[in-house]
Design goal:
Blueprint lengths: L4 E5 L3 H10 L4 E5 L3 H8 L10 H10 L3 E3 L4 H4 L3 E4 L14 H13 L8 E4 L8 H9 L11 E4 L9 H6 L4 E4 L3 H14 L6 E4 L1 H30 L6 H8 L21 H14 L5 H25 L6 E5 L14 H11 L3 E5 L4 H8 L4 E3 L2 H5 L4 E4 L11 H4 L6 E4 L12 E4 L5
Parallel strand pairs: 1-2, 1-4, 2-3, 4-5, 5-6, 7-8, 9-10, 9-12, 10-11, 12-13, 13-14
The structure holds uridine-5'-diphosphate-xylopyranose.
Length: 438
């Protein structure tokens, strides 16, 4: 264990993964205002599904990781205080800093008369300028001064749900943004000790670090909307398959082969929110970001590409039994936030369909949204039996092993595969891959 004390405020995906990682390296404490969450964490149970998280968490607890539901003086006097609270979008599409402001107010309150100078590190995604304007101002209450009584750094996080632990243990880049070289060096040195491998560490100022995070997510979202547009063109072009096109353009090192998997549109807690926040921010400072508007609109409309495939092949949707395979916004998570599957279920209900859903992990979260309006199944056989149309929405590993005989249980074997994970070649099954022209 290294001789450093760290606190992590906000036990969501970013904060908890960081706590589970750092808890095995240094003296760490995780804080969250939600008491139920803290109680669950104290017994080593993560409040959401994330591969390998429980293992790292339990190990970290054995190594001394602690949890608290309130910020106190001991917590703010840590060497590094990471802020990882959620920054959702408000009803006007702007970033909502409520959680951030209340955490900071509590930190400021406990920071007077400290013996040491803590580094406050903003890991939450915040729009450019927030750290050095809004956040600094809140912390400077009670006569506290940045660089004198505390350091303030911006250190965005790039982890993905479904591989949060792996991305935390081995990040592709670490961005350290600060206003003075001493504080930047301090955090960089900490990361150099924590990470065994040589990680890319980029030192910059706070606002650049903030922009990097939005640029990163907006670029990836742009790639997805781009390839989804190509998929929609391929759909109307017999003989084409979007995956072949993605494979070849991905060989061009200027393009790169990642994030070119066409599908029903991106979802989750980051891309939709961050693209929207960037659009609102750009408009506020007098720039109309037409590219990002197009990325967002392309994504919002992509669910219609799926609905149209269902409509085109079933004609009348009333009372048709539609089976949705996959509710989570991506594989290996139980998160359904902004999931296109949820949008599709809503549209199908409007068309008076009988909707039956399956997901290996996300049934409970989906139940909270639809209650008794749809039927839930934990068995793939049950969800397919008697169905008029099966729609594969999330590329879960076990869906890849579905066989023709599984689909022959359907009343009308029509399979719409939005991620093209299956190869079905049976005259009794109508197989339609999104982005495959026929
Ligand atoms: C994203 C960023 O990748 C991560 O760096 C950031 O910290 C948080 O936001 P996440 O939302 O967890 O991570 O998952 P990601 O793997 O990026 O997928 C986001 C969405 O895009 C999912 O709905 C996924 O299915 C979709 N996607 C991704 C595609 O449709 N095609 C692709 O090629 C890649």
């Amino acid at each position: 264990m290294y001789d450093k004390k760290v606190a992590i405020i906000g036990m969501g995906y970013v904060g908890l993964s960081l706590a589970a990682f750092l808890g095995n390296k240094v003296r760490a404490i995780g804080v969250d205002a939600n008491k139920n969450k803290i109680n669950s964490l104290l017994s080593g149970i993560p409040p959401f599904y994330e591969p390998k998280l429980e293992y790292h968490l339990k190990r970290a607890i054995k190594n001394g990781l602690r949890f608290a539901d309130q910020i106190n003086k001991e917590i703010v006097s840590s060497d590094f205080v990471f802020i990882t609270v959620g920054t959702p979008t408000d009803s006007n599409g702007k970033i909502d800093l409520t959680n951030m402001k209340s955490a900071l107010a509590s930190i400021a309150e406990h920071m007077t008369n400290l013996q040491n100078k803590p580094s406050i590190i903003i890991k939450s995604t915040v729009v450019p300028g927030t750290t050095m304007r809004v956040i600094k101002q809140i912390l400077e209450k009670n006569g506290l001064r940045e660089s004198v009584d505390f350091d303030l750094l911006t250190n965005p996080e790039f982890l993905r749900e479904g591989s949060a632990m792996q991305d935390t243990v081995s990040p592709h880049a670490i961005v350290v943004g600060g206003s003075n070289s001493k504080s930047i060096e301090n955090l960089t040195k900490f990361y150099r000790t924590i990470y065994k491998k040589k990680q890319n560490i980029v030192e910059t100022n706070n606002v650049t670090a903030e922009v990097i995070k939005y640029a990163n997510n907006a670029f990836l979202a742009t790639k997805i909307s781009f390839i989804n547009s190509i998929a929609n063109i391929c759909q109307k072009l017999p003989g084409t398959n979007v995956d072949k096109i993605a494979q070849i353009i991905g060989m061009d090192p200027r393009i790169g082969n990642q994030f070119l998997r066409a599908g029903p549109g991106y979802g989750g807690s980051c891309f939709p929110k961050d693209v929207q926040a960037l659009i609102s921010f750009a408009n506020d400072i007098g720039y109309k970001p037409i590219l990002f508007d197009a990325v967002k609109n392309t994504n919002s409309l992509q669910v219609n590409a799926v609905l149209n495939l269902i409509k085109h092949n079933l004609r009348n949707l009333t009372n048709k039994k539609i089976s949705i395979l996959g509710l989570a916004f991506k594989e290996d998570t139980d998160d359904v936030r902004e999931s296109t599957s949820i949008k599709l279920v809503n549209l199908l209900l409007k068309h008076k369909c009988n909707v039956m859903v399956h997901d290996p992990k996300a049934i409970d979260n989906t139940y909270q949204m639809f209650r008794e309006k749809i039927k839930y199944s934990k068995s793939l056989s049950d969800v397919l039996t008697g169905s008029d149309c099966a729609v594969i929405m999330t590329p879960w590993e076990n869906y890849k092993y579905l066989k023709e005989k599984d689909f022959l249980k359907m009343r009308n074997p029509l399979v719409i595969d939005t991620r093209r994970i299956l190869k079905l070649d049976n005259k009794k099954i109508l197989y339609i891959g999104l982005g495959i022209g026929n």
